[in-house]
């Protein structure tokens, strides 16, 4: 499937995303393996924040807090880096089909 992406590998149309597209984006990333349910939970959280919270793309601290609620247990940023070694807020957003966001630091 041909995906229309920008220079950073992010989809140009976030509405073109699906779980199959996420798997394709992850497969093209050398640091990713198959997507687990935990990966999908994070991706869906990021998409929910973007589409239902004024196009918010949360930084790591907020992703940690959000996923702790979703999973019902306290997690840390290391847990997210196991899933997204290229940074949950950057690599996660890319695989979630969201626009590229330039920012420094994780917090």
Automatic annotation (TrEMBL):
<comment type="similarity">
    <text>Belongs to the dsrC/tusE family.</text>
</comment>
<dbReference type="InterPro" id="IPR043163">
    <property type="entry name" value="DsrC-like_N"/>
</dbReference>
<comment type="function">
    <text>Part of a sulfur-relay system.</text>
</comment>
<dbReference type="GO" id="GO:0002143">
    <property type="term" value="P:tRNA wobble position uridine thiolation"/>
</dbReference>
<keyword id="KW-0963">Cytoplasm</keyword>
<dbReference type="InterPro" id="IPR007453">
    <property type="entry name" value="DsrC/TusE"/>
</dbReference>
<dbReference type="GO" id="GO:0005737">
    <property type="term" value="C:cytoplasm"/>
</dbReference>
<dbReference type="GO" id="GO:0097163">
    <property type="term" value="F:sulfur carrier activity"/>
</dbReference>
<protein>
    <recommendedName>
        <fullName>Sulfurtransferase</fullName>
        <ecNumber>2.8.1.-</ecNumber>
    </recommendedName>
</protein>
<dbReference type="GO" id="GO:0016740">
    <property type="term" value="F:transferase activity"/>
</dbReference>
<dbReference type="InterPro" id="IPR025526">
    <property type="entry name" value="DsrC-like_dom_sf"/>
</dbReference>
<dbReference type="Pfam" id="PF04358">
    <property type="entry name" value="DsrC"/>
</dbReference>
<dbReference type="InterPro" id="IPR042072">
    <property type="entry name" value="DsrC-like_C"/>
</dbReference>
<keyword id="KW-0808">Transferase</keyword>
């Amino acid at each position: 499937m041909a995906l229309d992406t920008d220079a950073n590998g992010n989809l140009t149309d976030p509405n073109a995303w699906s779980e199959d597209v996420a798997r394709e984006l992850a497969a093209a990333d050398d640091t990713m393996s198959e997507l687990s349910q935990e990966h999908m939970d994070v991706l869906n959280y990021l998409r929910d924040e973007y589409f239902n919270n004024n196009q918010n793309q949360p930084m790591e601290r907020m992703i940690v807090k959000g996923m702790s609620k979703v999973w019902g247990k306290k997690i840390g940023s290391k847990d997210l880096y196991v899933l997204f070694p290229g940074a949950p807020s950057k690599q996660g957003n890319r695989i979630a089909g969201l626009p590229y966001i330039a920012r420094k630091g994780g917090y």
